[in-house]
Design brief:
single chain
Length: 166
């Protein structure tokens, strides 16, 4: 069963600290992460009892040599061409996992679009706007944060574009 909390707990992640500092309304959901799980995002959706189209994964890609964050529903995949287009680039590939971890300060499966060590350009899939709230990683495997797509867009200065594929 997922635990919920509206207040920042001691020892929070950089993502929850950033949300608290900004005064943004959010809810933290935690669950027991299974290291054998094939998909971090689908595991989160199932553990939280939330539709996979409301749980978004944070992916780091490289667009024309620049690292960029893409936030897409776990129910689908990232359209690399659409991501490149959304940031005015020509070519996108998935980033090297070690570079993504080093740059964001988070481990794979726990990368949050919030509170990154080095703030990267962010693109949020347009489908997020269909929901009052969405869930994204709170910066640790087994920890999600629920907030409005508008707040996520504001806090990350994200571009909103159709970058996901069903």
């Amino acid at each position: 069963m997922a635990k919920k909390s509206r207040k920042q707990q001691p020892g929070g992640t950089p993502a929850t600290v950033a949300l608290t500092t900004a005064g943004t309304a959010f809810t933290v959901h935690s669950y027991e992460h299974d290291p054998a799980s094939a998909s971090y995002g689908e595991e989160a959706a199932q553990a939280l009892g939330v539709s996979p189209d409301r749980v978004f994964k944070t992916l780091v890609a490289e667009v024309d040599g620049e690292l960029v964050v893409a936030v897409v529903p776990v129910a689908g995949s990232l359209d690399l061409k659409a991501l490149a287009s959304a940031v005015g680039g020509k070519r996108a590939t998935m980033a090297d996992p070690a570079a993504a971890e080093r740059t964001t300060g988070y481990v794979r499966g726990g990368i949050s679009p919030l509170g990154q060590r080095k703030r990267l350009r962010t693109v949020l899939d347009a489908s997020a706007g269909a929901h009052a709230t969405i869930c994204v990683s709170a910066g640790r495997r087994g920890l999600e944060v629920e907030l409005s797509p508008g707040d996520l867009t504001t806090l990350t200065t994200a571009t909103v574009a159709p970058i996901g594929r069903a």
